[in-house]
Amino acid sequence: MALLTAALVLVPLLSVGLNVFSGGTTGTWAHLSSTVLPDYVVATLWLCFGVGSGVAALGVGSAWLVTRHEFPLRRHFEWALVLPLAMPAYVAAYTYTDFLQYVGPLQTGLRHAFGWQRADYWFPEVRSTGGAVLMFTLVLYPYVYLLTRTALLERAGGLVEVARSMGLTPWQGFVRISLPLARPAIAAGVALALMETLADYGTVSYFAVQTFTTGIYRAWFSLGDRTAAAQLAMALLGFVVLVLAFEHLSRGRARFDDTTLRRSGTPRLPLRGVRAVLAMLACSLPLLLGFLLPAGLLLRMALVEGDAQFGARFITLARNSVLVAGTTAVLAVMLALLLGYAARVNRGAGMRWAHRVAGLGYALPGSVIAVGVLIPVTRLDHLLATGLKQAFQIDSGLLLTGTIAALVYACLVRYLTAAVQAVDAGLGRITPQMDQAARSLGHTPAQTLRRVHLPLLRGSLLTATLLVFIDVMKELPATLVMRPFNFDTLATQAYTLASDERLAEASTAALAIVAVGLLPMLVLCRQIAQGQRVSVS
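Request: output the structure for the sequence above.
Response:
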C-alpha cells in the first residue's frame, strides 16, 4: 500500500512527461517558442529575481533585529512577523488593487488633500510585474524570517562574543559571522518562497503577468491544446528544479556545523532613541503591509460595502471548500500514517524510495499537478463510462472528473508532503523500544499501531490534518482546473468576483480564507512567544 501510494504521487509527473512527447510536439513547441514562450521566460525570471531579493532582505533584516537587539515591542514583533503567511498572495493582490487604484482611498485622499487632478501627479501601476513582486514579497518573507531566526538563535553565543572581543562592531559581526553561518537557512527560505511564487496563479492572472502558470491555464481552456499545456507544465517544472538546485548549490562544499558546546544566548544589543524607533519602524512595515492593512481593508469592504451574495450562496461555497479540504486532509493523514509506519517497520530501499516520492508533491505547482492528473483521469473516466454503458446499460456520466474525486486526488498529491512530515516527526519521538515491547507481548504490527502509536500520535495527526486542510482551502490553480461543473469554493469565488472587478463581493470569501489560515499561524506564534524553536516544512 505504501508503494502504491508513492506510485499514485508519481502519476501526474509521468503523465505530463509522456504527453510532452505525444503527437504534434514539434509544431506546438515551435509555435510557443515564436510567440509566448519568451514572454513567459522573461516574466518568470523577473518574478524570481524580484521576489528572491525582496524576501531575503525583509526576512533576514527582521530576523537579525529581533534576535540580536533589544528595543520596545521586540517580543511582540518576534511572533507577529509570521502573520503575513496567513494572507494568500492573490487575496493581497485584490485588496491592494482596490486600495491603490485611481478611485481607491489612497489616490482619492491625495487628490483631495493637495487639490491634484489626474495629470498633476504620477502613481505606480499596481497591476504589473512590479506589483506582483511586491505582493509575493510581503506575504512570503516569513519563510526566510522563520528559518533565519532559528538559525541565528541556534548558533553558539560564544562566536558573536569572540567577534566583539576582536574589535568587530555588531554589524561587522553579523556580516562576517552570523550571516555566513545562516546561509543554508536563508537559501532554504528563499527557495520555499520562490516555489510558492512559481505555483501561484491568482496573483499573476489578476495582474495580467504572463507566466508559465497563466500559459498552462490558457493553453488548456482557451486553446484546448493538451500538448501545449503539458509542455508549458514541464517548462515550469524546470524552473522549480532550478530553484531546488540553487538551494543545494548555494551551500557549495562549505560546512556550517557549530562545533562549540556552549548554548547560552548572546546578550542582545539595547537600542535607544532614534535607533529604537528605526528598528520598530523596520519591523512594523512588513507586518503592516503584509497583514494588517490588507486584512483591515477586507474587513472594511465586508462590513461597509457588503457582499450581495452573502447568505445561502456563501454557505454553499463554505460547504464545498470544507468538503474538499476535509476529505483531502483525512485521506492525506491516513496515507501519511501508512507511509510513516511502513517505513518504521520495514527500513528497506523500497520504503525509502516511497517516502522520497511522496515528498515530491509540494515541489510541484498546482497547475502542473492539475494537468498531470486531468489527462489520465479523463481517459479513465471515459473508459469507465463506456464499460458501464456496454456491460450494464448504465449511463454513469463522468464518475471522476464530474465529481470532486479528481480534485481531491490532485490536492492529495500536492499536499501529502505536509502530512508525511508531521507524522514522521511524531513517530520519531516514539522510542523503538516501545515497538519491541509490544511485539514481545504478542502484538502484530497492526495491533502495535492501533494500541501503542495512535494514542501517542494524536497531537501529530491533528497537526497534519490542520495543515493539509488549510492548504487545500487556499488552493486556487488546481481547483480552477479540476473542479466539477457548477462547483465553486471560497478560493474560486474570490478569484472570479475579483476578476470581474467585484472586489467588495469578493471580500467575504477572501476574509474567510484568511481567517482559516490564521489558525496555524496562531499556534506558531504561541510557540515563538514561548521561546521555542520552530521549523518550516
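Residues 6 and 357 are 6 Å apart (CA to CA).
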